[in-house]
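re: ur msg from earlier - yeah i can do the EPZ complex, just paste it... oh wait u already did. ok heres what im feeding in:
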Amino acid sequence: MDHFLIRGGSRLSGTVEISGSKNAALPIMAACLMTDGINRLHRVPALSDIDAMTRLLVDLGCRVRREAPRKIDIPNHPDLDGAMTIEVIDPTSVDPGDDDARSMRASICMLGPLLARRGKAILAQPGGCSIGERPIDLHLKGLSKLGARFYREDGCIVGEAPDGLRGATVFLCGASGPTVLGTINVMTAATLAEGETRIVGAACEPEVVDTARLLNAMGAKITGAGTSEIVIEGVKQLHAVEHTIIPDRIETGTFMVAAAITGGELRLRGARLDHLVAFVDRLEQAGAKVIQQNGDVLVRAGDRPQSVDYVTWPYPGYPTDLQAQLMALLSTADGKSRVIEHIYPQRFKHATELAKMGAQIDVTGSTAWIDGVNTLVAATVRASDLRASAALLLAAMSASGSSKLERVDHIDRGYEKIEQKLACVGAEIDRCPAKPKLTVSVLGREPETAPTVEPERTDRQIVA
Ligand code: EPZ
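and the outut:
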């Protein structure tokens, strides 16, 4: 695995272009399964999770192409995401590759489109970042209400809807609130169901709204996206479209913390503050100055960060995906801050790594107390998940000395060319490629064959 060497202490200054939203692009790519013709998507970020989704679509009979990268007219800025086209060539497959499905939570977004358009889906249990329990019961409950039947076979979830889906009223709130991808999955499937579907307790995140905007452009009839009740009037078919993905609000927030934690000042081009109201409220309380100016966001560090308390909550509350990054900033704040993680109560693995850099953080259950120190010190730290890796990178940029960040494959899942973007505003980060694995060959001996794996039992178990 690659690692980063980060020389801390540089004050960031300059302009960065914000990429398209990963968490909007993934379900939007999946929704393209439901159309005929060539879809053209702008601002799909170049990320390893997007590559995995691309391979899943290819497995499902799609032709996926990337156009040439976009030149960004900012000195030393890396080129970004070229437009992507997606066209269904062979609509018969319902069974994408297991490895990519298991590696990524968003693979669950295939379920709704496949059931709605092809009447069947076979999907490995989705994986994703190690941030605690990530069940899929609400997805299965919602799609079952529309008439799909599910069972497990050979370690996969099999869904069937041979006679099509029918509209229904679905309540999609779980113990921790609404589900983002669950709302998107059911909403997407319901566009081709017969009659009206009403999703009550729907997630309100901007990624839900962007997917609804795409589907409506494709010919769907969706109202209420962005509120807790979404109504979908089923249509017979959807057509291909051209669509521009919204800017990534989590990348935006991460760069805002980068300015604040390095005592710097950044202009974030193409960012949207209206998607980050709760986060900006806390960042300003911590002392940063934030303004929207001509379509850009300007963020300037305050004199010294001040302590703040925050609770992660479904949108429009404080996003769990920016919990770790603000914690890095508050590690050097004046006073004691408190964080309550409501969405993923165990999402605190970064706290142990931040402690290696001198942060004083005490985690009890779903609450973390951060006692601010004057400065962080360089250390070797290891990323455990995507947003944890962003927090550690931010901390290392503010620390005195050179830090090593291991397992940057996590950061590559969700931040497009992050070290190059940060370098163009003054950060000193080197990507060090992993050493190639040595293969030992013994003369005259055949290579060992792979171990055989016992097949799982294939008795059908109804799961929803
Ligand atoms: C999306 O995951 C994001 N992922 C996550 O971002 C983000 O942390 C999360 O929403 C919350 O905002 C993508 O969009 C690809 P949920 P999702 O269903 O939709 C519980 C990142 O760093 N739940 O809204 O899978 C669940 O355990 C990633 O980019 C059920 O109980 O999250 C959690 O407590 C990490 N049953 C809560 O709901 C279900 O069937 C919200 O999860 C589904 C979820």
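cool cool. The CA atoms of residues 278 and 424 lie 28 Å apart. ping me if u need the other ligands too
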